[in-house]
């Protein structure tokens, strides 16, 4: 069994910072991509940022310059540093990984962690 376990999140005022962390565990051969998505109430889940095994990154336009994604391949972890948070960043944040495991190439998701930014 493979899983992603998230930590971090919480309530912060606009302009503040939070850091999300996610660790993958289980019988994983390799992880091709890791990243974060978010979902606000009444809206679809959207990409926030992803990072490849070689360190290539992709950010949503709305978070460029404010969020930084990083990854530790040895520990199978991914972090999201969020600075200058805005109320529109509020939502449930989900860790994501595209892995190669015993079942083959698979996408897995964390359980989600809530980020609330007050104005």
Give a written overview of the molecule:
By secondary structure, the chain is mostly beta strands. The model has no long low-confidence stretch (mean pLDDT 96). The protein has no helices and eleven strands. It is 0% helix and 62% strand. It has strands spanning 3-7, 10-13, 18-25, 28-39, 46-52, 57-59, 67-72, 77-82, 91-101, 104-109, 113-118. It starts with a strand and ends with a strand. Strands 2, 4, 5, 6, 9, 10 and 11 form a seven-stranded mixed β-sheet that branches.
Condensed summary:
The chain is an all-beta fold. The protein has strands spanning 3-7, 10-13, 18-25, 28-39, 46-52, 57-59, 67-72, 77-82, 91-101, 104-109, 113-118.
The assigned structural class equals mainly beta
Which consecutive residue ranges, at least 5 long each, have pLDDT under 50?
A: none
With helices defined by DSSP (H or I, 4 residues minimum), what is the helix count? 0
Residue share in helix = under 10%
Shape: globular
Tell me how many strands there are: 11
Q: What average pLDDT do the residues reach? A: 96
Give the C-alpha Rg.
Answer: 14 Å
Content of β-strand? over 45%
Terminal-residue CA separation = 41 Å
Q: What's the oligomerization state?
A: single chain
Largest sheet: 7 strands, mixed
Compressed to H and E, one letter per element, the order equals EEEEEEEEEEE
What features would you highlight for this structure?
single chain; 119 residues; 7-stranded mixed sheet; 62% strand
Note the topology.
Blueprint: E1 3-7, E2 10-13, E3 18-25, E4 28-39, E5 46-52, E6 57-59, E7 67-72, E8 77-82, E9 91-101, E10 104-109, E11 113-118
Parallel strand pairs: 2-11
Antiparallel strand pairs: 1-3, 3-8, 4-5, 4-9, 5-6, 7-8, 9-10, 9-11
